Amino acid sequence: MRAAGIKDKALKKAVEVWTEAPPLLSLPRNKREYETMVKVLDILVDIAGEDEAHPYARAIDTLGVLIHAYEEEHLDLPTGDPVETLRFLMEEHGLKQKDLGEEIGSQGHVSQILNRKRSLTLQQIRALAERFNVSQAVFI
């Protein structure tokens, strides 16, 4: 497929690969699409790390929103913000602040996050998602 008449290289390339993009730019319609989207998000977060200026940062944000929307409608995850989700998961797993040292850092760091004085980093989000076996999107 050729993008005839398009001069901007980036736009031309986007048009040429557009047929592959819609599954990653729309709400997942089923569990398979959801799981694929979560895998793509995990890969992008691994590549971008904590660099919020990375070229993939916007894609990470978009995928996070789409995954979160699917989870709210189809999964029995806590609704609300990342701090409330973390509190819920800690309670469900019988964990105290000191138990999250490996994922977040010191008990003081955990306290600051739970009291909304500090935000979760991408690295912490990755570690928490892995520990609780949930999508990283629930912490974004």
Structural description of this entry:
The protein has 140 residues and is mainly alpha-helical. The chain has one domain (29-139). The chain has six helices and no strands. It has helices at 9-17, 31-48, 57-74, 82-92, 107-114, 122-132. The longest helix has 18 residues, at 31-48.
Total helical segments: 6
- Major sheet: none
Terminal Cα span:
36 Å
The residue ranges in which pLDDT falls below 50 over 5 or more consecutive positions are none
Average pLDDT: 83
Number of domains: 1
Helix content: 40-55%
Quick rundown:
Helix content is 54%, strand content 0%. It has 140 residues and is mostly helical.
Set down the secondary structure blueprint.
Blueprint: H1 9-17, H2 31-48, H3 57-74, H4 82-92, H5 107-114, H6 122-132
Question: Any descriptors?
Answer:
mainly alpha; single chain; 140 residues
